[in-house]
């Protein structure tokens, strides 16, 4: 038969929670791989169960989560392999990952700070911000002749308001 076992309501709830857990990259990669590997889409539950167990043998759940492209490649190879050769395929993948050198962590792109020569420096607060000083700064916005490089006249205007 196509259906080899019964899934009860508790298992369905657990599966639904796993599907919705976007922080669990292993499950999310498995779902995305299932959508991108055609034989996986058409597989019966028994084959899906075997494929996921094979995946867990190659990529332990408590280990580093493989990239999505690696997961897809593994499932494509697993489903295209003859049934008798799948055990050998699992061993080859496990050996390949053991012998693979540790990836070099790339740092983010270096930010190059370019100072604009013509860019004026923003004025700095001279006092600790309190309700009074913040009110003065807001009132400076009403001064029509506001000069950001010379705030003294604007502050005098703000104090008069």
UniProtKB/TrEMBL annotation:
It comes from the Bacteria. This is DNA breaking-rejoining protein. It comes from Salmonella enterica.
């Amino acid at each position: 038969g196509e259906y080899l076992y019964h899934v009860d309501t508790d298992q369905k709830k657990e599966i639904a929670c796993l599907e919705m857990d976007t922080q669990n990259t292993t499950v999310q990669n498995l779902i995305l791989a299932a959508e991108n590997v055609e034989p996986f889409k058409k597989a019966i539950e028994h084959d899906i169960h075997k494929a996921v167990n094979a995946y867990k043998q190659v990529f332990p759940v408590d280990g580093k989560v493989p990239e999505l492209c690696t997961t897809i490649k593994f499932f494509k190879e697993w489903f295209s392999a003859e049934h008798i050769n799948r055990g050998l395929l699992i061993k080859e993948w496990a050996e390949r990952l053991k012998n693979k050198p540790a990836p070099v962590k790339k740092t983010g792109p270096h930010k190059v700070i370019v100072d604009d020569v013509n860019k004026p420096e923003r004025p700095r607060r001279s006092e600790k911000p309190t309700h009074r000083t913040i009110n003065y700064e807001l009132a400076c916005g009403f001064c029509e002749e506001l000069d950001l490089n010379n705030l003294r006249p604007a502050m005098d205007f703000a104090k008069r308001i």
